[in-house]
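Title: Prediction job returns without error message
Component: structure pipeline
Severity: low
Priority: P3
Assignee: unassigned

Description:
Job completed but the reporter wants confirmation the result is attached to the right record. Sequence as submitted:
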Amino acid sequence: MSAVLFGGLGVTRLADTWVFDGVTWTQSPVTGPSARDSAVMAPLGGQLVLFGGENGAGLGDTWIWDGAVWTELDVIGPSPRWGAVMAPLGGKLVLFGGWGTLSGALADTWAWDGTMWVQLLVTGPSAREGP
């Protein structure tokens, strides 16, 4: 799989998808998530999962990139947030923390198994957000 970049913050918030093959960056002409920055994205099962981000308020949507197309999933998951962290672990993705529009820094842990989000009721680090 190539490296994929989605969105970010330039002069304005961006909603573009770029793919890097190790030599060249190419902008993909696809339509995908709305403009945002500080979303999290991690690989799972040959796809990339994007969650949340910020566009003036926290976002709580889940998107899949299959290498050619973005698909928004109609799932219930973590509260809207930006600046969380997410990484693959044991065949799932684990998401931690971030910043919620109304709640400030968060300390919750969630797992994505490819079809649904499940909150993990675990004790862990204190609330925090950041890249």
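Comment from assignee: result matches the submitted record. The radius of gyration is 14 Å.
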